[in-house]
Amino acid sequence: MKENQDYLNTENQVISEKEVKHYVLERFYSVKHDPLIKNLVNFQAMNKYLVMAHDQEELKNLGNIVAKHKKIPFSEILDYYELHLKKALKNQPTIKKHTNVILHVFGHFSQKLAEHEKKIFLDLLQNYKEEKIALGKLLAQVHPIIFRFDNVYLASQTYFLLYSNIEPGIFSKIKND
User: Fold this and answer.
1) How many whole angstroms separate alpha carbon 60 and alpha carbon 31?
2) From CA 108, how far away is CA 153, in angstroms rounded?
3) Which of the residues 42, 92, 93, 107 has the least number of beta carbons within 10 Å of its own beta carbon?
């Protein structure tokens, strides 16, 4: 299915999975050129959900690699991290993997949503799983929630940058009573 290879982040621009990988690796190479543990930790945090969409097991491995930064020379950490990052990005995201990511994201704000908002969210997710809407459209609907609840961690995720359509979402139109 085309959706698993191409993602829209605007109405007119298609970002291929190859471009997604290139973008992430370029950001990693900037970490290698300024080799500080805080840069690697920030990179890991910002790319968590994107890597999760590719390979959840490798995401765990990457986290473990970062956690060992005091036991192993940092240059080796970077080499090992790069190896596992590339391995993770070789795996294609699927509807099932994206659904898992979206449910993790939902966990960040589900307790703050009204019941009717939770239903809308879950209906959107079901429509995505049934391939009635594209991933970019689903994420465009979710994206305003992140800002509504001022979740800086989620707002910094490259997952939304690369896979969302940039358009007003349904949640930005809902008024809480």
Assistant:
1) 19
2) 10
3) 107
Q: Where are the alpha helices (DSSP H) in 34-67?
A: 37-46, 48-54, 56-67
Give the model confidence (pLDDT) of 77-124 as tens digits: 999 999 999 999 999 999 999 999 999 999 999 999 999 999 999 999
Q: Which of 97, 95, 98, 112 is nearest to 149 (CA)?
A: 112
The residue ranges of every structural domain in the chain are 2-90, 95-172
Tell me the two tokens of residue 22.
Answer: 């290139």
Q: Is the pLDDT of residue 1 over 50?
A: no
**pLDDT in the model for residue 14:** 55
Asked if residues 88 and 64 have their Cβ atoms less than 8 Å apart, the reply is no
Residue 105, phi then psi, degrees to nearest 5 = -60, -45
For 19-34, how does the pLDDT look when each residue is reduced to its tens digit (9 = 90+)?
Answer: 999 999 999 999 999 9
